[in-house]
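Dear Dr. H.,

I hope your travels went smoothly. While you were away I took the liberty of generating a structure for the chain from your last submission, since the lab meeting agenda had it listed for discussion. I wanted you to have the full record in hand beforehand rather than looking at slides cold. The sequence, exactly as received, is reproduced here:
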Amino acid sequence: MPADGGTGSNFDLLKGLRELYEVTGGGSSKVTVAVIDGAVDFTHEVFKGADLRTALGANTMSAEAGNKMAEHGTHVASILFGQPGTEVEGICPGVRGVIIPVYDAASGSAPQLEVARAIELAIEEGADIINFSGGQYSDTGVADQWLSDAVVRCAEAGVLLIAAAGNDGCECLHVPAAAASALAVGA
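The corresponding predicted structure, in token form, is as follows:
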């Protein structure tokens, strides 16, 4: 059953989202959204009919049950690409999705160098939007040089980088979300 208990989606929980969905029809196959996260279980029923694949050159990681990072990657991907009429209807099921796994299953972390590499892959894959549900604490808000350079290339290419600003409610900075060209999102 849908999370809202009614019409089949959570669109009415965020003002304007249903209207945007109705105008766009859930996105266009001309738009590519890259998800930098854990591995994704492409066999999950909510992805049946979705245009999803792993980026060429990306790390190959298992999406087996019990892998918390794969569960997270699958969860994030379902919010975006879940197909209409399934248990989780995504907010942009009609776009192309490119998955770039970066999280280590054992540690749950991704070094800034791997995130930078993933951003570069996303740009090479033609991403219009990159979603990275992660980041690292930073006293200054400045990332390592590799990641800073990748974020600059992202902006130069006209790619919107959406990055997590943290889930713990601290008054602290996370990279790459602290970059001026990133759209920072907090939980």
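Two observations you may find useful: Residues 1-8 have pLDDT under 50 and may be disordered. The first strand starts at residue 32 and ends at 37.

With kind regards,
E. W.
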